[in-house]
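Tokens for chain A. Residues wanted.
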């Protein structure tokens, strides 16, 4: 068991490490906080837990990398940081893609569908997108494909 001092030192080390990663990623905000909240209010949060569906697509290859959910705060964080944030419907919390793995998604474009209940994030993927270790969640050993 770690002492409170050791836990704080580990936390500080992790924060410093994340700060260095963010500096290296050269992310740029897509909107100011005020603009981001205006955009977030335009969306139709009608899916699980008051969310929109979020599809991450590789900006270069156009491959679909993953599908997640975003609540209004995740939308604002994504737009103001330039890094993809999602809302976990199972854990009921916002998470930064890459916060534990280092496999961040740098958002280059944010689009909505015609109903504004789904968003498309065109991203530069750092590392792999799938938690199972594949570049795309649609290439994992658990996924399958049917073709005609």
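Reply:
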């Amino acid at each position: 068991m770690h002492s409170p001092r050791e836990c704080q030192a580990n936390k500080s080390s992790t924060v410093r490490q994340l700060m260095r990663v963010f500096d290296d990623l050269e992310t740029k905000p897509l909107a100011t906080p005020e603009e981001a909240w205006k955009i977030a209010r335009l969306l139709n949060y009608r899916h699980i837990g008051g969310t929109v569906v979020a599809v991450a697509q590789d900006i270069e290859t156009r491959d679909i990398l993953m599908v997640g959910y975003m609540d209004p705060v995740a939308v604002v964080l994504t737009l103001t940081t330039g890094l993809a944030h999602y809302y976990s419907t199972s854990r009921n919390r916002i998470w930064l893609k890459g916060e534990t793995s280092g496999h961040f998604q740098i958002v280059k474009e944010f689009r909505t569908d015609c109903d504004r209940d789904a968003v498309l994030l065109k991203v530069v993927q750092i590392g792999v997108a799938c938690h199972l270790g594949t570049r795309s969640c649609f290439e994992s050993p658990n996924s399958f494909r049917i073709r005609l």
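The longest helix spans residues 4-25. The domain at 28-139 is CATH 3.10.20.810 (Ubiquitin-like (UB roll)).
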